[in-house]
Write a structure and sequence with these properties.
Length: about 425
């Protein structure tokens, strides 16, 4: 998984740019194996291609833009803690908490490290990266990405023209940012060292400086006696920032309600999803075509039956169900010609009598009724359930027997 690290200048430096001037930042692209593939300085819009190809973008926010507080927080759930944080740090902020993104880190020694950053600036960075195609965005305080030693302060300086920004880690969970300006480029190194010495008056100091400016910073140490013994200079490198970022432990993007958190990357699934949609569309189209064909066949068959009924009975004006109406007409014609329908009383009674005799039954029936084109037979008292012999006899005469409540039998024509 490739990761793109971007070290940003402070918001104040970005605001000081003239309209149309690009915001330059340092960047490094790291492969899945941890090897730095590319590094340099570029304007943020020029990083659109690396941002799009990276699995994750890690922003190192300028230390001057992030305020780190140590706050005692009552035991709360994650949701309630997010809601309570602005009120817990309100007294320690100079700006309105509603205008800030506030994120709490892990609890250490009974206190939580709380990071505060201007919400508008963080939203602008997140929106810009999301527009470039970023899949996942994290924002870390630069001061917490510096090394930490109990008996030494580590600081790093970044220069742009005659302005410099300094990040200093004062403790395991503490750090500050300084903005330093000079009237001449030659004096900037001395101003940075003087500012750091004023903030850290006694502790040993390790200062990471741009490689191209290491000589100027070493010469500036000779100006003040004793600084060479207390200040150690080293050339800055991305390996150190990358190692520190993995242990920073405070992602400020969480203050935007997870707006910059991990999002599912749909790009590898584009073709499988497109294929699935195409298969569903083809099947839906096939089903609709088959339904339309069956519907046309049903309409043609119904039209044929209606036409046949009209040809047979031209005086009929209302045709609702041609099959049922044809059956009624045929039954009426048989009755008019003296023929019995299979479900007439006489036909049912005669057929049942023959089946009753053939099954070896001799006891007289208790009752025999006819309604709804069926016989309701009440068997003799004490008779058993209809046996197989009686059912076979009834079937031979096209009759069907159905037991009913009360012990009665319903006899219907099976034709």
């Amino acid at each position: 998984m490739s990761i793109l690290y971007i070290r940003l200048p402070s918001r104040a430096m970005a605001d000081s740019l003239q309209p149309g001037m690009p915001l330059y930042c340092e960047f490094a692209s790291v492969s899945a194996a941890g090897r730095i593939e590319r590094e340099g300085v570029a304007a943020l819009p020029e990083l659109a291609d690396p941002v799009k190809r990276a699995q994750r973008v890690v922003l190192l926010l300028a230390a001057a833009d992030v305020t780190l507080l140590r706050v005692q927080v009552p035991p709360l759930s994650a949701t309630r803690l997010r809601a309570a944080l602005p009120n817990l740090v309100e007294d320690q902020l100079m700006s309105d908490p509603a205008e800030c993104a506030v994120v709490a880190g892990e609890s250490v020694d009974g206190l939580r490290t709380v990071g505060v950053v201007q919400r508008g600036w963080l939203e602008l960075l997140n929106r810009s990266l999301q527009t470039m195609g970023a899949r996942s965005v994290a924002a870390l305080p630069a001061q917490l990405c510096l090394p930490w030693q109990a008996d030494m302060v580590h600081a790093a300086v970044s220069e742009q023209g005659m302005d410099a920004e300094v990040a200093a880690r004062l403790g395991a969970q503490e750090g500050i940012g300084l903005s330093v300006a000079a009237e001449q480029q030659e004096a900037l190194a001395f101003e940075v060292i003087q500012s750091l010495v004023a903030v850290v008056p006694q502790a040993p100091l390790t200062l990471y400086v741009p490689q191209a400016r290491e000589r100027d910073y070493r010469e500036s140490l000779h100006i003040v006696p004793g600084l060479e013994q207390r200040v150690t200079l080293q050339a800055d490198s991305w390996q150190r920032w990358i190692a520190g970022a993995s242990q920073a432990g405070l992602d400020l993007m969480g203050g935007l309600n997870a707006a910059g958190g991990r999002s599912f990357d749909w790009r590898p699934w584009r073709w499988p999803l497109a294929l699935a949609v195409a298969v569903v569309a083809v099947n839906a189209a096939a089903l609709n075509i088959d339904w339309l064909r069956a519907r046309r066949e049903a309409d043609a068959l119904n039209a044929g039956m209606v036409q046949s009924y009209r040809n047979a009975y031209p005086k009929e004006t209302v045709i609702v169900d041609p099959v049922a109406q044809m059956r009624q007409k045929l039954a009426a014609a048989r009755r008019e010609s003296g023929q019995l329908a299979p479900d007439d009383f006489i036909a049912l009674a005669a057929a049942f009598g023959q089946a009753w005799s053939e099954s070896g039954q001799s006891a007289p029936l208790a009752a025999l009724e006819y309604h709804d084109r069926s016989l309701v037979v009440k068997p003799p008292p004490g008779s058993a359930e209809p046996g197989e012999r009686l059912r076979n006899a009834l079937a031979a005469h096209n009759l069907a027997l159905t037991p009913q409540a009360g012990g009665n039998w319903q006899i219907r024509s099976a034709r």
